[in-house]
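New to this. Please check this record:
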Amino acid sequence: MPDDPRSVVVGLISDTHGLLRPSVHEALAGVDLILHAGDVGGDDILDELGIIAPVYAVYGNTDDTTDPRLEQELVMELGGVSIHVSHGHEIGSPTPERLVAKYSQDVIVYGHTHKQLMTQLGKQLVINPGAAGQRRFKLAPAVARLTIENGLARVETVSLD
């Protein structure tokens, strides 16, 4: 895991399902690290993302759970902000309310639904960066950038089309 810098920019990506769009390189340029929230679709995706920045990833419901590069969940602290990453399928149909009920971290990152979402519930920020891979469910492919400065987290979405 990375050290605990006071200021950090984190690329958030999920549901690549074996496809990494070339526009991801521009969308995540300059990030300090990348967190992948599952349904990666193979080590080639992690290798390509690794060209941009160090990658930490969890497995989704379509990934090989024995892949040593994928964790069930990630819990870390960056810049004084605690972060939890999982795919979301472990709680069935993930919603911000269900995720906040299960995880206590300041920022909760998940995937699975393919639907981009940023919600503040009390002191917790819940983020689904959207699906970055094949277009499904008529949803536009996207990623997100999480900026942590002085113990505060803010997120912006980046469309890949």
The helical segments are 23-27, 43-50, 96-102.
